Amino acid sequence: MTTHGPVMPVWSCGGCDLPWPCPTRKQELRAEFAGAPVSLALYLGAYLVQATEDMYWMPAGGLHRRFFGWTREAAQPLPAVLQESAAEPDRDERQQPR
Description:
Layout: E1 6-7, E2 12-13, H1 23-32, H2 37-54, H3 60-69, H4 80-86, H5 91-94
Antiparallel strand pairs: 1-2
């Protein structure tokens, strides 16, 4: 079990006193939920709901970034389906006569 759990209602890390989830806990969560991004989102979502009740003064976007923003970093590749839909056609392909 990790010592980097949230200390409520201030939402600091019990292991290092940084804002939770701290860098160590994020690394642990990546390992625990490897290959299960939906499960990770559900886990973090439950904590986000609790945090919004405790930190009602914090903007929703700030809490969202804190709890979810780190889960899809640039180092993580997009799933193949999203990569194909996000890819823009080459300039030559767009201007080909019909």
